[in-house]
Amino acid sequence: MSADPSPLAAVAWPVHTDRLAIRPATPADAEATWRYRRLEVVNRWLTRAPETFEAYRVQFEEPASLAKTLVVELDGVVVGDLMVAVEDAWAQAEVAEHARGVQAELGWSLHPDYAGRGYATEAVRELLRICFADLRLRRVTANCFAANEPSWRLMERLGMRRELYTVRESLHRTDGWLDGMGYALLADEWGEHSRR
């Protein structure tokens, strides 16, 4: 018996915005994403920062990792990547079946050469549309270190609500214990925000 297909398989790929194309990552995207993910300005905020391309490639090509990774292209060049980890919501046992696969944790990274031009905003705005319109999720979340101001400002720009501020709860690989932040958005909130 094979595993359930990725929820992202339900989307008609690639998805296009005004300037960008978004599609599921393939093993062939490892080198293109490594080019910017290896840079300190990017990887200082990422969950993992392998020191070699080979270590990165192994991690990138893990089936569970590929199943939730999208790449962002500008004129055919990979300029960023997105993560959509569809998950179950917490629920009491009697209603747990209704909470399966109804929300997602999101993440993103962008090549710094393309920063400051609105590409991250455009890509994550489309990611929200994919989550709510195509995948029919009810809620999305995203987390970051409080010091990662570009990330939390992006969340706020897109209408996400700060739900959590933690004090020295998040352990950074070089900076020690840092404050963390958590944001969320519900489908009905996105509908209201996207009509503005």
Task: Pick out its properties.
globular, Aminopeptidase, 8-stranded mixed sheet, GNAT_dom, 8 strands, 196 residues, alpha+beta, 29% helix
How would you describe the overall organization of this protein?
The protein is α+β, with helices and mostly antiparallel strands and 196 residues long. The chain has a single domain (7-194), classed as 3-Layer(aba) Sandwich (Aminopeptidase), CATH 3.40.630.30. Helices cover 29% and strands 31% of the residues. It is built from seven helices and eight strands; from the N terminus they run E-E-H-H-H-H-E-E-E-H-E-H-E-E-H. The chain has helices spanning 30-37, 40-43, 53-60, 63-66, 119-134, 149-157, 187-194; strands at residues 15-16, 21-24, 69-74, 77-87, 103-110, 139-145, 161-172, 176-186. An eight-stranded mixed β-sheet has the order 1-2-3-4-5-6-8-7, sandwiched between helices. A hairpin with a 3-residue loop joins strand 7 and strand 8. The radius of gyration is 17 Å and the shape is globular. The N and C termini lie far apart (46 Å). The relative contact order is 0.14. The mean pLDDT is 95. Residues 20-188 form the N-acetyltransferase domain. One of its GO terms (molecular function) is acyltransferase activity, transferring groups other than amino-acyl groups. Keywords: Transferase. Pfam families: Acetyltransf_3 (PF13302). This is GNAT family N-acetyltransferase.
